[in-house]
Specification:
single chain, alpha/beta, four-stranded parallel sheet, binds (4S)-2,6-dioxohexahydropyrimidine-4-carboxylic acid, binds zinc ion
Length: 433
């Protein structure tokens, strides 16, 4: 099957170029590029004029919830949400039930995704058994089964000795550790950022230091072990400063920020909407300014959503009793374009690199480019489309978004994964239908 993408502006984050040209896809691969290409024999033609053609977006921080929490999300619904949001690949966290701490679980996720997925799925294996932080998982087996990184995301690895040992193994296996930085002694019992707003709202706070002491620890351990460490969901100015300084000293550390952390502050908690309850919590305006600065100067390599679906019933409780997490796959492109690109924080090429090439390089997966011969994963973005977020239209089972009703500019128009159109004009096609 051939696919011709005509008339778009192609963003190539490797060459750092934006050029108007056509792209031809054949046999699931990028087959060629040029002007006025013709698909020849029967194929699909997508008109991308006035739109941007970019490598398929990669979200390196997603909770698909299967197995175990299928009421929140499944591999099918989560990858449909990904395709709708413009993501051709997602990297899924292991905090399922059971936790993805064995080769069998990793194989289950990969097989289910292959049969049902509307996007590629790359699983993360846990660092410790059951993510309980007591003993290491069989990290070598996890890699052999297809894990692309290790993380106990959702839980910190409290024991520094154990984390150091995990880094030694991860370094040997040449996979990164993705660290959820949280000192539970400092964060315990909190449900929002500790500061003026938490006092006003009468909620127990989570101080910035709960994140920063662990960022500092991971940097020290990365320096000592040589392990590549990726700091998940950076939310404070102090964390940005620590990562910037570590990079300047050549420590192998990378970092990500979520759209909610560069868009919202703790003021959004004021209505006690539990969709604003997330871990790490929404911080202050100066933290938002610092993560934007970190994005602009390259300290923050990756934009990832931390898509964390929960059921309506779970979220429909008092603020301090609700689970942490919000969904992000179907609002990410709009938030990146509105808050970062249109606002002049990032160029389109910088924004796209942080959603394609940079996560692909960090995880060593052969995606994130449009070079001839690579798997044909690409996304077409309409940067000028103005739309209003409606959680009822989400493909995700999770409707827990703080952005419902928000007006955004920029939306994914089409998602192609492995040469197949998985989403066009908002309509998703997966392998089951
Ligand atoms: O808000 C969050 N939700 N943060 C995490 O680290 C975990 C996630 C989840 O799994 O719900
Ligand atoms: Zn996390």
């Amino acid at each position: 099957m051939k696919l011709l993408i005509k008339g778009g502006t192609v963003l190539d984050p490797v060459a750092g170029e934006m050029v108007e040209k056509d792209i031809l896809v054949a046999g699931g691969k990028i087959a060629g590029e040029g002007s006025n290409l013709c698909s020849g024999d029967a194929g699909i033609v997508l008109d991308a004029s006035g739109k941007l053609v970019v490598p398929g977006l990669i979200d390196m921080h997603v909770h698909l919830r299967e197995p175990g929490y299928e009421a929140k999300e499944t591999i099918l619904t989560g990858t449909r949400a990904a395709a709708r949001g413009g993501f051709s690949s997602v990297v899924c966290m292991p905090n399922t039930s059971p936790v993805a701490d064995t080769a069998a679980l990793i194989s289950y996720i990969l097989n289910t995704a292959r049969e049902q997925g509307a996007a590629h799925v790359f699983p993360v294996g846990s660092i410790t058994r059951g993510s309980r932080g007591k003993e290491l998982a069989e990290m070598g087996d996890l890699k052999k089964a297809g894990a692309v990184a290790f993380s106990d995301d959702g839980m910190p690895v409290a024991n520094a000795g154990l984390m150091r040992r995990a880094m030694q193994y991860a370094r040997m296996l040449d996979l990164p550790i993705i660290s959820h930085c949280e000192d539970r002694e400092l964060s315990s019992g909190g449900s929002m950022h500790e500061g003026y707003m938490s006092t006003v709202l009468g909620l127990k706070g989570i101080p910035a230091s709960a994140e920063e002491v662990m960022v500092a620890r991971e940097i020290l351990l990365a320096g000592e072990t040589g392990c590549r460490v990726h700091i998940a969901h950076v939310s404070t100015a102090g964390s940005v400063r620590l990562v910037r300084e570590a990079k300047s000293r050549g420590i192998p550390v990378t970092a990500e920020v979520t759209p909610h952390h560069f868009t919202l502050t703790d003021e959004a908690v004021a209505g006690y909407n539990t969709s604003t309850k997330v871990n790490p919590p929404l911080r202050t305006a100066s933290d938002v300014a610092a993560v934007k600065e970190g994005l602009a100067d390259g300290t923050i390599d990756v934009i990832a959503t931390d898509h964390a679906p929960h059921t309506v019933e779970e979220k429909d409780v008092e603020y301090d009793r609700a689970p942490f997490g919000l969904v992000g796959l179907e609002t990410a492109v709009g938030l990146v374009w509105t808050e970062l690109v249109d606002a002049g924080v990032l160029t389109p090429l910088q924004a796209i690199a942080k959603m394609t090439l940079n996560p692909a390089r960090g995880l060593n997966i052969s995606r994130g480019t449009l070079n001839p011969g690579v798997d044909a994963d690409l996304t077409i973005i309409d940067p000028n489309l103005t739309w209003t977020v409606d959680a009822n239209l989400f493909e995700s089972r999770g409707k827990n978004t703080p952005f419902h009703g928000m007006k955004l500019k920029g939306q994914a128009y089409a998602t192609v994964a492995g040469g197949r159109v998985r989403m066009l004009g908002g309509a998703v096609k997966d392998l089951l239908r």
